[in-house]
Amino acid sequence: MKSTFEPEYCRSSELKAFDDSKAGVKGLVDAGITKIPRMFHQPPHALHNISYAPKNSVSRSSFPIIDLQGVENSSVSRKEIIEKVRNASESWGFFQVVNHGIPIHVLEEMKNGVHRFHEQDTDLKKRYYTRDSTKKVRFNSNIYLYRSPAANRRDTSGFQIAHHPPEPEEIPAACSSPAANWRDTMAIQMAPHPPEPEEILETCRDIVMEYSKEIMKLGNLVFELFSEALGLKPNHLKEMDCDKGLLVLSHYYPPCPEPELTIGTSKHADNDFLTLLLQDHIGGLQVLHQNHWIDVPPMPGAIVVNIGDLLQLVSNDKFKSSEHRVLANREREARVSVACFFTTALLSVSRRYGPITELLSEKNPPKYRETTVQEFAEHHNAKGLDGTSTLLHFKL
User: Fold this and answer.
1) Strands 160-161 and 303-307
2) How far apart are the C-alpha atoms of 146 and 109, rounded to whole Å?
3) Which among 257, 268, 260 has a CA at the least distance from the CA of 48?
4) For strand 94-98 and strand 137-140, is the pairing parallel, antiparallel, or unpaired?
């Protein structure tokens, strides 16, 4: 495969034209393209180990699936569930939950709402297109569209020092930005200060508000289970305000005419405490487990739970934040997912987070320095999805 990252190639004009269209990846598909623009071409090393028919030894039945039936009214069931949560959190950092309390019709309508938003007339969507993260409701394609490795440098300790990403017109003529992902996103900050209902487009307003309430309840329960799995009282993580903020990202992955050249979401770990993900039947989500990419199997009615970097930090590496990715969509229909991030990154919160004192000892000293959620997120955002762990910057 010929590399698309020759030094004389600059993507700035292509990036800017794409961004200025405000039509996203779906706009390209609607235009009938048969070749994807060069800005989406991934370097060979990012594609060499992709398989759409995994042959590894980990099967659907061995991916962690936890039944929450009886978690609220049976001490025996709760104890068994906590043990399963502990095992999955330590070894995978990912698992799926069923019988979680969110009605099936709510899950289905949420997915339908994502389709309605992204598949409506482009002129209506354009009103929400922005890269201003202070907006509570925003639509764009590729949050890290303008991130460049050149925007980061390393100090003598090997840590990355974050710099604000350049504006489109400031990108140098020989830039080498990471390839764009084949995905559009609607983002809504739903807690602790949700937008006014009229700020959310009518095509998905009611279901976004209903789904967010349901996911907050599930998130509260999962934080209780995490706390108990760490040997703490049930409310410990909630008293740390880990559940205070909720950002809802509704992703839309259109069919890709050349899926062998690009990816839906690049390899990364989430920079929050907890992510609860609703995925549809198409699949494509993979988690890196024991150096193998494993499919997270679509399962009707299930919610995917994955631990974020901040929970790994406060648990002092007891729980694992795993890298994951989404393959480019090679089906004829669009793939959708709804990722709910529990984080206060967009709020001015001064609280500092470090390894939980109760988990530390002489044999288990703190492995990370204290930080604020905002500082952590700023470093993560400055470097973009470059394949490196945000946690490295905060290691002691």
Assistant:
1) unpaired
2) 33
3) 260
4) unpaired
Give me the sign of the Cα torsion angle 164, 126, 337, 48: negative
The structure's pTM equals: 0.89
How many Cβ atoms from other residues are within 10 Å of residue 31's Cβ? Answer: 9
Largest CA distance in the chain: 64
- The pLDDT of residue 163 is above 60: no
C-alpha closest to that of 147 among 161, 132, 166: 166
Beta strands of 296-379 (E only): which ranges?
303-307, 324-327, 335-342, 352-353, 371-372
Torsion angle, alpha carbons of 246, 97, 113, 21, to 10: 60
Q: Which residue has the higher pLDDT, 210 or 53?
A: 210
Residue 380 corresponds to which tokens in the numbers above?
């993560």
Count Cβ atoms below 10 Å from residue 8 Cβ, excluding itself: 6
How far is the C-alpha of 107 from the C-alpha of 300, rounded, in Å?
9
H/E/C letters for each residue in 92-106? CCEEEEECCCCCHHH
For residues 335 and 45, what is the distance between their CA atoms, to the nearest angstrom? 25
CB of 139 within 8 A of CB of 204? no
Residue 385 has pLDDT above 70, yes or no: no
HEC states along 232-270? CCCCHHHHCCCCCCEEEEEEEECCCCCHHHCEEEEEECC
pLDDT in tens, 134-155: 899 999 999 888 764 333 332 2
Which DSSP symbol is given to 278?
Answer: E
pLDDT confidence of residue 157: 27
Q: Which CA distances in Å does 339 have to 185, 275, 295? A: 10, 6, 17
Which residue type sits at 294?
Answer: I
Q: Which helix (H) or strand (E) holds 297?
A: none
Tokens of 44: 């060979």
Q: Helix 104-118 crosses helix 205-229 at what angle (to 10 degrees)?
A: 130
- Cis upstream peptide for 192 (omega within 30°): yes
Alpha-carbon distance of 371 to 185, in angstroms, equals 28
Angstrom distance (rounded) from CA 65 to CA 343: 24
